[in-house]
Structures are given as C-alpha cells and as structure tokens.
Amino acid sequence: MAVQRLGFTELSGGKERTGPFKVNIIFVHGLRGNPQHTWEGSRVSPADAAPGEKKRRWLTFFMSNDNTAGGSSTTSESSSFVSSGTIFWPDEYLTEDIPEARVWTYGYNADAIGGMFQPNNQNSISQHGRDFAVELNREIDNELPILFVAHSLGGIITKDAMRRSKGLHSRTSLIVFLGTPHRGSAYAEWGQIASNLASLGLQDSNKKRVQTLEVNSEILDNIHEQFKTIVFESSIRIHSFQEARGISGMKGLHNKVVDDFRSKLDLPEAIETVESIDANHMQMARCSDRKDPQYRKIIGVLKKRLRNMASQGDGVEARQEDILTAPNMIGGSAPDTSNATEPCHYIPLPNNKRFVGRQKILKKLKDSLFVNESPKVAVVGLGGVGKTQVALQVAHWTKENKPEYSVFWVPALSDASFEQSCAAIATKLGVSKTEDEEDPRKIVQRYLSSEAAGKWLLVVDNADDAELLFGLSDKPGGFSKYLPSSHNGVTLFTTRSREVAVSVAGIDVVDLSEMDSEEAKRFWGDSLTRKELLRDEALTTVLLEKLTYLPLAITQAAAYINTKQLPIAEYLELLNGTEKDIAGLMSREFVDSSRYRGSQNAVATTWLVSFDQIRKSDDAAAKLLDFISCIEPKGIPQSLLPEFESTEELVNAIGTLRAYAFLNRRGDSKVFDMHSLVHLAARIWIQREGRIPTVLEGATRDLATVFPIGAKHEDRHLWREYLPHAFKILQQGKELETEHNARLRQAVGCCLQVEGRIKEAVMYLEQAFQWANTHLTGERPLRLAFMHALAGAYESDGQIKKAVELLEQVVTITKRVQAEDHPNRLAYMHALAGAYKSDGQIKKAVELLEQVVTITKRVLAKDHPNRLASMHALAGAYKSDGQIKKAVELLEQVVTITNRVLAKDHPNRLASMHVLAGAYKSDGQIKKAVELLEQVVTITNRVLAEDHPDRLASLHNLAVCYYNLPCSPFDNFKQKVGVLFCASQSVHLLT
C-alpha cells in the first residue's frame, strides 16, 4: 500500500476494514527512520544477507534510509514501497491480529543524512513534537483511546507531543517504547560520524538533533521530567523494551546503542514494565514472522492492554485501577497481596472544603513523593501561608487516590502532641504495647520501618522548632529519632524554618508563598457568607492587596466581616487606621475548624512562637528583628542595619530571619524587605512584652550611628535610602529625649535642606536645637553645631533675622574658646557672613569673609573645599557690594578649580558656575553668562526635582539673560520668551 513519507497513514492490510473499532494504535519511527521501513523485517534469514549489505548498515545504525534506486532521498508527500523481500508487519500482521484497532504509522523528516543536493529539514525535536501533536489532533478523526508504539527517537517525539497536548493525556492508555533514549544515548557520536561523512558529499546534516542525543542532554532531561509527571497524573501505562544486543560488525562499538539505564523511565513497577528484546537497536522494531520473539512480545503487550480496557472500561478511572493491579511482566500475574496489611489512615484534621488553587505546589509535592519517590520532602514558608492546608490536601488526596498507601499525620507542636499522635496511630494500626516496649513512639517507628507496614505517607506538621526535632547540642535527641524509615514510606514535613527543612529533606524542599491574586479572590469568595459583598470588585482587590494575599489574613478578615456583618469598606477603614486599630484587628482570635484546636489563629499572634524561638537560638537575629520593627518594612539596605561584632554575625542573623521567611532579599542586591504583617506582628510582640521604649531607644541609637553626617553630596545615595527609615523612627520617638534622637533629627534636617524641603528641615532642626538648649551648656560643640545647622535652614526659609541672631551667638562663643584657624570657627564666620549678605548688611559680610579667605589661603590647599567655598562666598559679597571685577576674578579662579576636581553635577561646582554667570551678567558679559547658565540648567534639569529652588533659580536667571541678549532672529526671541514664561510659572516657589 502507499505509505506517506510525512504525516499519518492508516494501514488496512490490503483489505477494507469496517470495524467496529475500539482503539487507535500509532507507530512512530526513530532517527534515520521511515514510517514503513523502520517496521519492515526481511523474509530472508539475516545470515543470508550479502556482505555488502552488512557493511552498509553501520552507517545508518539507528534505521535504514529511504533512498530510491537513483540514490536520492525522496521527500514527496507519498510514495509506494514495493518489496517482495520484506514484511511490513504493522500492516500485514497487526491489522489482522487486532481487528478492533485502527492502525496508523506516522512519518517525519528525522534524517541525520539527507539525499544528495537535498537540503535536510532543520526542525528540532521539540518542533517535531509540536507538529506531531497538532497533526494527531487534526488527522486522527475519532475519540478512541490511543496506544503508541515508538522506536528510538520516536519515543522522545511522542513524549514531547504529550506535554504539548492536554487532550492526549486522557486519550493515551499505553505507550510501548522500543530502545528510546530517555536520557540520551551514549553512542550518539556514531550519528555524528555519519553526518560528517555526509558533509563530504555536500549533503546537509541536522547536527542540532544529533547533539540532542548526547548523554544528559538538557532538552531530553526537561522532556523526561515533564513526561513522568503526565504519566503519573493521567495513569498512563508504560512498557519499555530494551535492546539485549549491541551493534555487530562495527569497529569500536562494543556497547548497546541505548544502554539499559537510559532506555527506561525509572517509574514505579505499577506504572512501568521493563523488558528486553533479544535484538540490537535496529532489529528490535523489525519482525519477519508472527513467531518472532519481538512480535510476540509487542503484540502481547498491546492485547493485554486491550483486555484490561475491555474488562474495566476505558476511562481514566479504569487506567488507575489497572495500574494498581498491573503485572510486572507480560504473561506474569499480579503481585500476591494476600499477606499485605490493609491500608490504615490517621488524619486528625478534616479535608478543607474551601481549599482553592495551589495546583502547581500540589503537583510538585505529588511528583516528589510518588513519582520521584523522594523519601523525605519539606514544605517551607511563612506562618499563615497555608502549609498545613497544602499538606492536608496531599494527605486526603493520597487516601482517596492511592488506596495502597496508609496515611498518618503527626503534629510537631510539642513532645506531648507528637507522643499522643503516635499513640493514636498505634491504636489505629492495632499494634499494642509489649513487655519489651511501651513507648508508642518507638512502637510506631518500629512497625512503619518494617515490610509488614506496606506503603505509607507520614505527614509531620509544624516542625518549626529545631530543638524539639533534634534536641540540643549538649543533649541530642528530639523526636526525629522516632521517625520511621522504609523504602516503602515517604515523609512530608511542613515547617517555617528553612534550617529545619534542609536538615530533614536536603534538596527536596518546596517553597510555599502567598496566594496569587486569582487564588486569593476565589478563596475570599468561598469564605464570605454574604456573597453580595463580592460585587464590589475594586474594594475586594484593594482589601486583598492590603492583606498581602496571605491565606490566614484572608480567613481572619472574612471571619470578622461575617461575624460583625460589616461592609468591606468599613473593614478597610480599620485597616487604614492607626497602628493601634490595626494591631487590635490583627490580634483578634477566631475559630477555624481546619486548624488545630487551641492554636493561635490571629495573624498578629501566629508568629509569636517563631519570634520566641529566634530569641532563644540567635541573639543577633532577635536584635535585628527588634531594630527592623522600628523602621520601614520595605527597602532596607544592609548598610543601614546595626553594627555587630563581625560581618559574619550580621550575615548569619539575616540568614536566620530569611530562614523563617520573615525577610526577603531583592534579587542579588543587599536590600531586604520584611512582610508587612510580620512587621506589625513583631511590633505587637515587643509591645506585649513592654519593651517598646527600650527597643526604640536602641534602634534610634543604631540608626544615628550609621546615618551620614552633614548631608554630603558624595553620600547622597546612602542618606536618600535611609531617610524613610529615619522618618519612621523619629515619628515613633517624638517624646524620646536622648542625644542620639537629637543627632538623628539634625542629620535628617540637613538632608532635607539639601533636597530643597526647607519647611521640614526647619522643623527637624528646631527639635534638635530644643533638646540641645535644654541638655547642653552654651559652649558645648554639639550645641553650636545644632545652632549653625538651624541658622542655615532659617536663612533658606527666608527667616534671615533669626539666622543672624543665632550665628552671632555662635561666632561670639567660638572666638572666645577656639583658635583663629579652627575649622568650626571659620565655618561659623562664613555662615554669619552669608546671613549678613542675605540681610542686606553687605559691608559686614565682605569684612568677615575677607578675614576667612585670608586665613584659609594660609592654612588650606588651593583645592580644599572650605577654601573654595570661602572664595565663592566672598565673590558673591563683592558682587552685591558693586565690586564686580573683583567678584569675576575670584569666581573664575573658583570655577577653574572646581571644574577640575569636582563632578559635573556636584552642587558646589554648579553653585560657583551659577554665581559666576550672575557676575558676568552684572559686568555686561551676557553671552558668557548665557553659556554658563545653559550648562547649569541642563544638569539641574536632570538631577534635581522640578520644584527644587536651585533648579528654578537657574532657569529663572537663564531666562533673564536670554531676555537681555542683543537683538536676535525671531526664533531666538521665541525661545527667550518661552523660557521666561516657564520660569514665571514657578516663580512663586522661589519666594
């Protein structure tokens, strides 16, 4: 019959087949294969083959090519193959022996060597899998179950198609693999040799696909792992045939093309049967006679599958039933279970009918426990995130879907709860105390570790306390020593502690985070008694975001709203209220039947036990938790955190908080976030213990210690990150009368002044000065520093008289107690001169600044910032005094130096350029003024806020200079007017 080279061909055995049909059987060839030739056996004995034929076979050891007599490879849609010397057994034998099956063969271009001058199809394996899935769904025009028979690479194509088409999952009942390299072939390099030989003949070769067959290929590993999951979830039966012989007659090849390890999926015996065929990789798919061992084995597997389907139905449930009773080998019998223990279940918590979502996590856990058969798996996550509920779903699912498994549940809340659960399990199992052993923990451990127990799942819930689990360093033990171990058993732990998770499960740790928005909405809807509340989707979205999609918080909110009959808007008002309101709301206990009786269900209290465990085991982490409770929970730079004795101690403390999921790192940065509800709970914990004043004082001291002093430009990236946290601490510590509190207020005020937030700066600096006035004597340096800073803010705020008054006091004191060239004395004189200038007392300003400049020139280097600042200020005073030439001369010196030593966007450099431009304007050098101001405006527009006074001042002065330029073309005039208009719109911000 005519077999299509590409796509599907239905086989009929040369007869008209009318059915009725019950199943599809689809054959898929392998690398270098063909939809007909792959499955053809010779009618002649292999021993009679000509020597030339044997020699030719080594080049195409995966399968023979479909060359025509002319030697060219055909890629036509269909071609008729007539060979009286071969048996195409799926067509000639199988259609007769299984008349109820529609038999198909599928072809695709899988040549490692194309025909001469025929470009090879460059599709990858994944592309072939995609095409196979699409064509199958289109061409197989029925809904009958499917049995696949796949050789070599064809098995990988079939697996890839399965993961791309969910429709195939439910239709597929059996897959027979013949020498499929599930994890790569150790001898794919022979295919590479063939490709290299082909290239000598100007033939194209698909090297990408040959590389895919290398051992441990990432592509194959991905397909392999995903396919195993599909098999388990869809209850698909697998029969893996392995080649018993290597390739003979090929020099250097002593092993099988696909070795035994790589030709099986390594699934449980109830799902996969592994069997050998006494043939090499090529011959295992070729049958010459119905009596051939390979034909008898393959058709035996297919018929056995059909018998099971006929006796049990052909649905998913039937396949699950069959997997539980499947024989280990074709022709064998089901395992003897007469002596097996009847499965037993002890799950003290009911199945949660309101459970929604979490499908990816559940799938991952089921795969780990029952497909990969990991002996121990741990779910780790924040308290209240739903670990117990996820474990409960796994436990009840196992009870309902895996009847061969016993399921047991023990809470690890305390020694007593563990022992009580073991006693209940012993009673359920019917294993009683003996004279030699009365401890129920040991009785259960011994029994579950024995073969008599059969298969079991043990859930150890709330294994949060490492001390309870493992004991102390000087007193080892803990109840982990009572946990059973058996190749028939798997254990699932839930814990808040990553340290515990890794200790018990190694790499088999599954992270559980908050719900996604859709899961949270479904859960919220199922939790409300008044469904009409769901109509306001906008409010629901805001509320769930506020609750951070945390299941426990959602449950608590629903319980409160259900009980109090509140609208969502009113509950949101409470959440947005004072910290006291929020704390009261989040601390309110409620009844939840899906949680342990007597457990703390309120969001704010659920983490208290974890906080206590941290304090007991890690002093540094407890100190860090105290500190973070006083600052903002988000955007916490590591450099802001308190100083410890060593960096290692800090890193370890951070690690402890991260292990409990209390602290999360932003990518690879050194910036951290704390869950907002955990942050609230930590504050409630501290408040309940009466430690708020002590903790707040310590946090203020720690932050004041690391906060940059003087609002220096080079530190701006730090203090900008620190400011939100300083605001948070200072807001809480309004009544805190300590030096560190005052120092922090002074530092924050200086930063705000630089940022142009003058009113706020004055407020913080006044608070700092008030403390200094009360607690410090007149000559104390700290008091003088606070007065100096406040005077600067007053001047920026236009309160010039106050600035002059403060600075005159400071200068008078420093002249009495400090040397003439003391840096602080010079700085205060400089500041007073500036205030005089702002107050219109220009002569006093000039006189004072000339003294300062004279001294700084004597004691400081030419490029010292203080010397340049004094020259800058004196030039400004000269300009105000009408001494324009002196001002220009001095400022040109300053600008020359600052252009050399400061960054382009440094405030001091920009200020000097700005003032020099003003001097040029006053001197009639308008073009020079415009040139400088254009540079300044370009930079300030980039680095300063739109309403920053310095940016607006530069823009205003540039507009004025444009306006004063000589007559220019109309376009320039429009530009000048436009800039002036922009400046005029914001001029009120300058006053």
Automatic annotation (TrEMBL):
InterPro entries per UniProt: AB_hydrolase_fold, NB-ARC, NLR-like, P-loop_NTPase, TPR-like_helical_dom_sf
Superkingdom of the organism of origin: Eukaryota
GO MF term list: ADP binding
Residues of the NB-ARC domain: 359-520
PANTHER family in alphabetical order: AAA+ ATPASE DOMAIN-CONTAINING PROTEIN-RELATED, ATP/GTP-BINDING PROTEIN-RELATED
Protein name per Swiss-Prot or TrEMBL: NB-ARC domain-containing protein
UniProt organism field: Podospora didyma
